[in-house]
Amino acid sequence: MKFNTWDINLKVRLFGEALLDISFWMVFPFLTIYFSESIGRELTSILLIISQVLAVFTALLGGYFADNFGRKRMMSISVIGEGFGFLVFAIGALHVIDSPYLSFAGFTIASVFMAFYQPASQAMIADVVPPEHRTHIYSVFYMMVNIAVVIGPILGSVLFYNFTTQTLLAIVCADLLLLFLLQKFGHETAPLVINPALKQDAVRKSIGAVLIEQLKNYKVIFKDKIFFLYIIAGIIISQSFMQLDLLFPLYIKEVIGASDLFSFHFTGEQLFGVIVSINGFFVAALTVVVTRWMSHFREKFVFMNSSFLYAIAIFLFGISTGPWGAICAIILFSFAELMTVGLQQNF
């Protein structure tokens, strides 16, 4: 599927989300270190768990809202809420206020509204892209995210600690730009919204009823053995994958620390930014190639070997006490990630 045949929604989102993702990744990898230094490691862990639990419940509602109120509308609301959350974060980070709790409240607001975005975003792709081309489109958007992962952490490792408020305000500006693009060029694709006849037959439900219905729908997972095992494996893999953003920053800063690479000196925070960028670079550069390569193998083979490589990469991280060990681990980690891009979206 050539780019010039893409729906305008996809083109607008690709540009707007690229800018937003670069801004976001200037901040996100360093939040664990930032909040650990101001409110303590234990409390930071608890608050991060709470914010992500809230985001999970929001995601359960996201699909229903996207179907009944529209993809474009929910994406716009999500962008507004995310921008407001990071604005609160920026206010809390001001030297005259210096309130880490206000900043964390802002981050939680942003996380909750970001959870609304993905269901609508994924559904919009399903609305405008034929099934045979969806894996390719998912891969392109995934590659775009990882280009942002290359650029964002490198910039953030320099800018976030020195210009915290300004960096957060850059995210707010990116949100406003994406909102403008969605409103100016985007169009609605949700069947219930663009087809009044279908909407008349739909039954409006309360938020509580929607949550209960969504939880009941998860019974399907337990009835389908293969899908159930896929979900369980995905949860386990996600636990290790998320350590890249939560535990590794502290590990690299405190265990590996300041290091020299190719005659350049890096602090622990900057080294972590480089390692995250290496992950983003490999995924961005090789997503399409590896996705096509993996399409020649059985899904079972790909998922099993990806999990095996994840395990080896995490083990290498655990025994690494220098920068080169961590770099080798992240390269292996990146290839394990690449193996299932596209497949897991279409499974």
Automatic annotation (TrEMBL):
The keyword Cell membrane applies. GO terms for molecular function: transmembrane transporter activity. It is a multi-pass membrane protein. Keywords: Cell membrane, Membrane, Transmembrane, Transmembrane helix, Transport. Residues 1-347 form the Major facilitator superfamily (MFS) profile domain. It is found in: Cell membrane. The chain crosses the membrane at residues 12-34, 46-65, 77-95, 101-120, 140-160, 166-182, 226-251, 271-289. It comes from the Bacteria. Pfam families: MFS_1 (PF07690). SUPFAM superfamilies: MFS general substrate transporter. InterPro entries: MFS, MFS_dom, MFS_trans_sf, MFS_Transporters, Sugar_transporter_CS. One of its GO terms (cellular component) is plasma membrane. The keyword Transport applies. This is Major facilitator family transporter.
